[in-house]
Amino acid sequence: MKNFKKIVLLSLTVMFSASVNAQVLITLLLGDALNTPKIEFGLSGGLVHSTIGTIDNSEGMNTFDLGFYFHLQMKNSSYLSTGVHVKSSMGATGMPVYELGDVNFDAIYKDGTLTKKIPVFSVPILFHQRFNQRWYIEAGPQLGLIHKPVDIFDAEKLGGDLSFKLDVKDQYKHIDAGLLGGVGYKFNKQPKSMSAGVSYYYGLVDVSDNPDYKIKNSAIYLFMKIPIGVASKEPQ
User: Do the Cβ atoms of 108 and 162 come closer than 8 Å?
Assistant: First the structure.
């Protein structure tokens, strides 16, 4: 199990090496110090399938998620679970493009597709309850800070793919908020161990500042959680 943890951790790190920032490096470097008998600290990551149900003709978008988590023990098998999704995006794809007023540009992309990509720093605040030392459920609010949203125009021309990113931060509010709930499974019965699961986010806030449409995000997370610096403190 110890070697398996190292392999998974290395795989996640390599997968996201181009975009890992200071917060994730702190997770790796300070895991020993931040884990205590009452606190579990580690790296979380996985896949996100996000949708925008308030926009017609949109399809789900698949992206990666990376961040860190805390499980704070309150009593017996009850915990407060929080953390930050550092590298994560909401949004949708498959929508028809809109015109920008440039004759040449509009002619190239008129039959293309539009993707709305909304990067979000998300902070869940969840009640986390464990059962039989293996399964757990968690639920609660999640707040998000939107940063650098873009509209991505894609088209196929002359046998190749064309893509253009448009900065649309002036079309969005800064804060997203909603409810998150999920279920997970711990790989062993130690209080601190790797786990995997699925959760669902339901956005309650219209994050659009454009009066022509509403945007309420929703997403399914397939995640893995890896405690950092635990092996030296807890026998396997």
Answer: yes
Chain CA centroid to CA 196, Å: 14
**Can you list the residues of the chain whose pLDDT is less than 50?**
6-8, 10-20, 232-236
The sign of the CA dihedral 193, 194, 196, 200 is positive
> Nearest to residue 136, comparing CAs of 76, 88, 64?
76
d(CA 192, CA 43): 12
Largest Cα separation within the chain, whole Å, is 67
The residue behind tokens 């022509």 is: 212
The SS3 assignment for 32 reads: helix
The answer to whether the CB of 196 falls within 8 A of the CB of 225 is yes
Q: CATH assignment of 2-227? A: 2.40.160.20
Sequence spans of domains, the chain = 2-227
Q: What is the Cα–Cα distance from 124 to 84, expressed in whole angstroms? A: 7
Dihedral-angle region of residue 232 (phi above 0 means left; psi in -120 to 50 means alpha; beta otherwise) = alpha
Predicted local confidence at residue 16, as pLDDT = 46
- Identify the DSSP state of 17: T
The type of residue at 173 is K
Q: Which two tokens stand for residue 178?
A: 């909603």
